[in-house]
Amino acid sequence: MNEMLSFLGIALMVGLTGIGSSIGVTICGNAAVGAMKKNPDSLGQYIGLSALPSSQGLYGFVGFFMAKSALDKLLAAGAITPFTAWAIFFTGLILGVVGAYSAIRQAQVCANGIQAIGNGENVFSATMVMAVFPELYAILALLVTILTVLSL
């Protein structure tokens, strides 16, 4: 049962961050398609901003490797304890939820920037800076995951 709980946490980590990133990239892609109708020459900027929410899915993938490696070592050393199983589960849940939410919120910032660029405004750099702020929380969640896994 403890092993199953641990793997569920790892699955949530990867699944939720991936879902959040795919929603985020879709939000930005939709904004880019609309903006290209007005200003097709800024496609490179649209692509740059549209790719930003995909990073949270990568954080889930990094967390997967960290947690899976730690879990493999723990299983090889003997039975995994309920405390360890719950720690991995909640670490995965936290990274998954924070990663998904920050990807969606980051996408909303990027979509607004894409729309403004489509209207002829020069806001690419400012949008990149503003889009970093929601992502910082996904980075913090990844750091918590790394520190938790290393302490097991």
Automatic annotation (TrEMBL):
Alphabetized UniProt keyword annotations: Membrane, Transmembrane, Transmembrane helix
Chief location category: membrane
Membrane-spanning intervals of the chain: 48-67, 74-104, 124-150
Location within or outside the cell: Membrane
InterPro entries for this protein: ATPase_proteolipid_c-like_dom (IPR002379), F/V-ATP_Csub_sf (IPR035921)
Domain spans labelled V-ATPase proteolipid subunit C-like: 8-66, 91-147
Protein's name in the database: ATP synthase subunit C
Keyword Signal: no
GO molecular function, one term: proton transmembrane transporter activity
